[in-house]
Amino acid sequence: MRKYFLIALVTFANLTANAQSRGIRIGYIDMEYILEKAPEYAEAKNQLELKAQTWKQEIEVKKNEINKLKESLKTEKVLLTKELISEREDEIRFLENEMLDYQQKRFGPQGDLMTQKTMLVKPIQDQVFNAVQDIAEAKKYDFVFDKASDLTMLFAAQRFDISDQVLRVLTRSQKKEQMNKKQLKELEAQERKEDMDSANPDQVERQKKIDERKAARDKIIADRKAALEAKKQEQLEKRQQLLDERKANKAQPKAEGEENTAPTAQQDAKARLAEERQQKLDERKAALEAKKKEQADRRQQILDERNANKAQPKAPATPKEGEKQVPAAQTPLSEEPKSDVKTEQQDAKDKLAQERQQKLDERKKALEDRKKKILEDREKAKKDREEKLKNKSSENKSEN
What we know:
Elements: H1 2-22, E1 26-29, H2 31-37, H3 39-76, H4 82-107, H5 112-139, E2 143-146, H6 163-175, H7 181-199, H8 201-250, H9 265-311, H10 338-399
Parallel strand pairs: 1-2
Helix pairs in contact: 2-6, 3-4, 3-5, 5-6, 9-10
C-alpha cells in the first residue's frame, strides 16, 4: 500500500511539474457519483435490489423450515429411536447445506448478485469512458483519473472535476432521440454555458453574488408592493364601512315582512313631472273630444235641415187679384228656387266640416302617438333606474 502511495505521489509531482512547464491539463471523475446520478443505473439498480430482496426472502423461508424441524426434533426426541433421530439430524444438515449453497450462489463473491452488478455497471462504464474520451479530446485534457478507483487522491480541486460534464454528455445522448432541432440547440447552448461556468469558478461565484443581491432587491420591492396593496385594501374596507353606515342611517325602518319601497327625491320629482304631463294630455284629449262632439252635432243638424228642405217641395205662388198667373215654364231663370243655392252653400259647409274633422282626427292620432311614446319612455327610464339600482346593490355586496 505504501509503495502504491509513493508511486501515486511521484506521478502527481511529475504531472504537476510538467503542467507548470508545458501546460499539461489534468482532470478527474468520480465514478460513484456518476453512477448515482445516471438514470439507467438507478433503474437497473432498483430492479437488482428487488431480485436480491426476493432471494433473501427465499433464504429466510428455508431457514424457518430448518428451525421448525429442529424444534420438532427437540420436542419429539424423547419418543424417537436413535435411528429416527439420526435420520432427522441428517435431513436437517442436508437442508442447512442446501441453504448455504443457495446463499453462496446468490450472494457469494462469484454469485448472481455480483455478476449482475458487474453486467449492470459495465455498459454504463463503457459510456462513461467514451464520454471521458470525447471531453478529453475536445478540451485538450492530457490525463483524466477516477477518484473512486484504487488510486489514492489526497487532494483534488473542484475545478478539475469533470463528472458533471460526463453526466451531461450521457444525458444528451439519451435525449437526442426525443428532441427536435430547436431543443437540441437550446440544450447545447445551456451546456456551453455550464462548461464555461465550470471553467471559471470565480466568475460563477461573482454571478451567484449578483443573483443573490438581485433576489434580495426583488424581495424588498415585492414587500413594498405587498405593503401598499395591504394599505390600499384597508382604505377600501374603511371606505366601504363608511358607505354602509351612511346607507344604514339613510334607510327607513322596515316593517316585518315588508320591503322599503320609498322612492328617492329624484324619483319623486320624475314621477310628479310624469303625472303633470299625463294630466295635460288628458285635458287636451278631453277638449278635443268635446270640440269633436260639438262639430258632429252641428254637422248633423245641418244635414237634417238640408234633408228637410229637399223633402218639402214648394207650392206655386197664388196670384193676387188683377194679376195674371205666370206659368211655371215661363218663369225666368233668374227666379230659380233659392233652395238650390242653399244646397250648394250647405255642401261647401259640409266639405269644410269634413276637412276640419279630418284635421282633428289627425291631430288626435298625433297626440295619442305622443302620449304612447311618453309612456314608453317613462317605462324605459323606470326599468333603467331599477337596473342601475340592482347593479349598484350587487356591486356593494361583492365589495363586502
